[in-house]
Amino acid sequence: MEIVIRPTAAEVHTTVADIVEGYVRSGHVTLGLATGSSPLGSYQELARRHREEGLDFSGARAFLLDEYVGIPKGHEQSYFSVIRSEFVDHVNLDPALVSSPNGEAENIDAEARRYDAVIAAAGGVDVQLLGIGTDGHIGFNEPGSSLTSRTRVKTLTEQTRIDNARFFDSVDDVPHHVLTQGLGTISEARHLVMIALGEGKADAIAAAVEGPLAAFCPASVMQLHRHVTVVIDEAAATGLKLADYYRYAVEHKPASQRF
Ligand code: F6R
Fold first, then answer.
1. Per the confidence metrics, is the pTM higher than 0.90?
2. Percent residues over pLDDT 90 in the chain
């Protein structure tokens, strides 16, 4: 696991965009996209590179991590809609190749199995962007999620519903249920890139990176993965005991070693 601490949010997004750009330039790539506020600046930077530098997404396809259950696809806060308005509409990524779990499916368990199968049939995800919840969730795998779980329905904690109320008129409008890739599904992506910004994420980042591997902090599953880059700002790094070492390691990174 590599921990990259950047002075500002803007520099976090530049680093994340650099990583994603490397994959996109290599040709056919499968991106794993997160929603929520953390990756928005990275999406804006990638859109700018598309517009101004010709970064070409025509060889890319993408899978979303999760979707709310109980709001229609056309709702402005469905993740189907959000990823389009925040990212896909601003690059030349074919919207038909941007897949997400269908939170409106009649048979939600069958939909969960179908989604895992479609990701596998596409050859898996090359690079998966992740945010982290204040309770340590990734995707919407709340504390207690099996570390090997597959895509399935989860019940959001009250804390996550309160955290996400800012996207809705009120907390009462935040759905209780979601369809989310499991921790096992997410772990199959070949490269995990976590983005965290602000002091509010400091405890979750410390638990995920330096705490025990435990279902209590779902993001700690990253400790088992062979290729993880955690890109955070100074505020999100304030709980890390080894922050100085992480900075030192990045400064002394062998030139041959990429993120
Ligand atoms: C969303 C997702 C969630 C968010 C997390 C952090 O697709 O998977 O895990 O990444 O809730 O949300 P923000 O970035 O809004 O703080």
1. yes
2. 97
